[in-house]
DNA sequence: CGACTTTGACCGGCGC
DNA sequence: GCGCCGGTCAAAGTCG
């Protein structure tokens, strides 16, 4: 019933945070496991309903993941264009908002900034503290592309690669080649549940123009 | 020769 | 204290 509102809520959830998808799916998975254990003892009608629900949820999840990756691609290309444009126009072009908060960078990267997974305004004050501006970017690549490389226009020097606990794919560590003038770092790793999606985590902001 | 990658060593934080 | 785990270093190798 009223599947539209259901779709809307899940959409909002996923747009708020990509990691919600993983957590929710894991929770649903574990719950279905626990329910599945008891299904042989109780009724089988409810299990069929649950399976259908799971099927629907899985299809919805997949669809949302694809939509999200499309949105991320659009965002990435748009951001690249914006960076290029800003590097060609070295003016700071801060219109009038000299007040703190709502600065220019916030507007350009609000969508994909997922650093603090806070749901529903944990604390009234938007803690714009000394956190080093971590942002995540999701890039869809070919499955045959085995090298963890995200072409974002900047030049990087790889300084490490590790296998992590809950992901068979290794994680690559990069520093900006302008180091130590520029201290930006990034980590690249394939997504756990969709290996055609690379997850790049950026830390810091470049203090030099876009070398493209 | 210089810049970059590879890859095991090393280190610090955290939980037991 | 010990071991696990994520992150970094740096020596050796590779490429142009
Ligand atoms: Zn940089």
Automatic annotation (TrEMBL):
<dbReference type="GO" id="GO:0043565">
    <property type="term" value="F:sequence-specific DNA binding"/>
</dbReference>
<dbReference type="GO" id="GO:0005634">
    <property type="term" value="C:nucleus"/>
</dbReference>
<keyword id="KW-0539">Nucleus</keyword>
<keyword id="KW-0804">Transcription</keyword>
<feature type="region of interest" description="Disordered">
    <location>
        <begin position="88"/>
        <end position="127"/>
    </location>
</feature>
<keyword id="KW-0238">DNA-binding</keyword>
<feature type="compositionally biased region" description="Polar residues">
    <location>
        <begin position="105"/>
        <end position="123"/>
    </location>
</feature>
<dbReference type="GO" id="GO:0042742">
    <property type="term" value="P:defense response to bacterium"/>
</dbReference>
<dbReference type="GO" id="GO:0050832">
    <property type="term" value="P:defense response to fungus"/>
</dbReference>
<protein>
    <submittedName>
        <fullName>Putative transcription factor WRKY family</fullName>
    </submittedName>
</protein>
<dbReference type="Pfam" id="PF03106">
    <property type="entry name" value="WRKY"/>
</dbReference>
<dbReference type="InterPro" id="IPR036576">
    <property type="entry name" value="WRKY_dom_sf"/>
</dbReference>
<keyword id="KW-0805">Transcription regulation</keyword>
<dbReference type="InterPro" id="IPR044810">
    <property type="entry name" value="WRKY_plant"/>
</dbReference>
<dbReference type="GO" id="GO:0003700">
    <property type="term" value="F:DNA-binding transcription factor activity"/>
</dbReference>
<dbReference type="InterPro" id="IPR003657">
    <property type="entry name" value="WRKY_dom"/>
</dbReference>
<dbReference type="GO" id="GO:0031347">
    <property type="term" value="P:regulation of defense response"/>
</dbReference>
<dbReference type="GO" id="GO:0009751">
    <property type="term" value="P:response to salicylic acid"/>
</dbReference>
<dbReference type="GO" id="GO:0002237">
    <property type="term" value="P:response to molecule of bacterial origin"/>
</dbReference>
């Amino acid at each position: 019933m009223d599947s539209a509102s259901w779709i809307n809520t899940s959409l909002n959830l996923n747009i708020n945070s990509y990691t919600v998808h993983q957590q929710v799916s894991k929770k649903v998975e574990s719950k279905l496991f626990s329910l599945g254990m008891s299904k042989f003892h109780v009724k089988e009608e409810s299990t069929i309903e649950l399976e259908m629900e799971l099927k629907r949820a899985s299809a919805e999840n997949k669809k949302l993941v694809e939509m999200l990756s499309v949105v991320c691609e659009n965002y990435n290309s748009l951001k690249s264009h914006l960076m290029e444009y800003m590097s060609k126009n070295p003016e700071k072009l801060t219109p009038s908002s000299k007040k703190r908060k709502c600065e220019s960078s916030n507007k350009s990267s609000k969508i994909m900034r997922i650093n603090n997974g806070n749901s529903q305004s944990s604390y009234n004050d938007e803690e714009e503290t000394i956190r080093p501006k971590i942002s995540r970017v999701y890039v869809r690549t070919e499955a045959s592309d085995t090298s963890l490389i995200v072409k974002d226009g900047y030049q990087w020097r790889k300084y490490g690669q590790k296998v992590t606990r809950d992901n068979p794919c290794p994680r690559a560590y990069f520093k900006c080649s302008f180091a130590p003038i520029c201290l930006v770092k990034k980590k690249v790793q394939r997504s756990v549940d969709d290996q055609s999606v690379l997850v790049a985590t950026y830390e810091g902001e470049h203090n030099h123009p876009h070398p493209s």
